[in-house]
Amino acid sequence: MEPVMKIVKWFFVVLFLMFASLVAYLTLVFDPNDFKSEIVNAVKKQTGRDLIIAKDLTWTFFPSIGIELGDITLSNPKGFDNVSMLKVSKIVAEVELLPLFSKQVEIAKLNLDGLVVNLETRKDGRTSFDGLQTSATEDKSAQLNDTTALSGSLSSLDIGGVSITNTQIRISDKQAGTEQVFSLDYLTLGKFSLGEFATLEYSFSAEMPDMTLMSQGKGSIRVAQDMTQIQVKDFKITNAIAGEAIPNKKLDISLLTQLEILLETKQVHLILDELNAGDIQAKGKVDIAYGHKVPQIIATLDLGDIDLDKLLPQTDKADKAKEKSQAEATQVEPDLTAMKSLDLTLALTAKSIKAANMMTSNWVMALTLKNGILNLKQLNADLYGGKIAVTARLDGRQAVPSYSFEKSVTGVQIRELLKDAADVDLLAGTANFSVKGKGRSLLADNIKKNIAAKGKFEIADGALYGVNIPQMIRAAQAKLSGGSSSTSSSEKKTDFTSMTGSFSVVKGVVSNPDLLMSSPLIRLSGAGTANIISEALDYQLTTAVVGSLEGQGGGDKDLLYGIEIPFLITGTMSEPKFALDTAGLFDAKLKQEVEKVQDKLKDSLLKIFGGF
């Protein structure tokens, strides 16, 4: 046992002497400050500013051998609030051991701690970047040749790792009066070699005027041996966003992605394996060709169940009225010039989407955006027992955008749709509807004023709510006969077998010249208008009894049978008012009675003269 202990003892003695000899060699023979002037000169050449390294470069021997730099600053231009544009507490570059004996430094791992970046924009427009010089004064062709030569000769790149901790970036804009703070807790890159995957992990937070953000990510990255491809694998990102403008003041977002960047062909391929944002779940892929003047993007996205109402801030009626008045006071046409800088093809499917309390399901949508024109080629969805199909076009090339659309609805249960979409309980039945139109301007008021459209509708086996026309006729009939009207409390609705008509929209007014409603009891026909700006209704109709009123609790059938009774619809879409024109009714009845007397007199005269 004793010989073994002696061997162990001498092993550690020799190891200590080797380490001591290495320390003596590095501290006495190899001075890292020999590189200090080279670093300062290189920064001066690249930025035009002075780099200050307050502390001498020193050796570190634990936990590994490295060169340490401290108290490094790069100044802002004169007159800025923050003297330094960039400040670093400590940089430690861990080095390979063997090359040091040949007086060569090869970085094994880079550690950066306490980086502070202060970026300012002054009220006069000056920024922290003003005056920075690059190597633009050098011959650009020489730079290109040097870069090409470097990438061609680089057969291997090995880095033990990169660790960046405690970094803060402060962005102050005096013109906008805003300040944003980004804090990077850490960013680490594991052992890195060309052609091999290395771990990549980060954690940062941000404080912005209207929200805060916390984000973490972890995955793997690989750079191809020939430096033409970058891959990011199984990158999982989790974000927590908070702010007054955020739905429910907080939103958690997580995603899992795969990314491939092809540097030679200038293409990006992104696969979205998972996306969870609140209650939203999605997956898809995006292909980007960024080598063109206008980037080309092809995206496919598959969504689950989406409740957009949950993503919007909850406001009461008073808040909505205040927001509406503020919006009306500051109405500005949206700037769509950015549409010219994108070439997008999007295919989207969704299990269900709820918006403005209206539910749709089984979405299939296809659109393109090119040269400032958005073309909605297809939007099909299930809607309240039926289907909706929409095509549309938005031209954003002019200061005032223009649009056109075509929409059809088939087999929809109209009562449920109107109640959810507009809180209007007016009609029921199975509806078919089609409309085609166009307009200019995307401001809410201008859309109502400028839209021009034509369409038609038909509703089968439905009801008109808020009025019982047969009951109104029975009441009028009772007055004519000198009796009293029924006191039975019938439901305020009028059943019908069909309602049809066409319409046009001009200057905010919907004109319906040929409304026709039929049932086994009555027929209603005529024309009217609906003002989509004021929501006012104005219909001049006539109704006639064509069958027994027994179907809705009626009595006699003959008294008003066949008489066309004036019928008015006024009020608003949300609160319509229905009325029989009594004066017109009596005129029509009197006319009918006169015609009956004339017919009897005619028959009597014929009998008299027929007897001669």
UniProtKB/TrEMBL annotation:
GO biological process, alphabetically ordered: regulation of protein targeting to membrane
Tagged with keyword Transmembrane helix: yes
Keywords: Membrane, Transmembrane, Transmembrane helix
Transmembrane segments: 7-30
AsmA domain boundaries: 1-178, 204-515
Assigned GO CC terms: plasma membrane
Keyword Aminoacyl-tRNA synthetase: no
Record-linked PANTHER family: DUF748 DOMAIN-CONTAINING PROTEIN, PROTEIN ASMA
Protein name as catalogued: AsmA protein
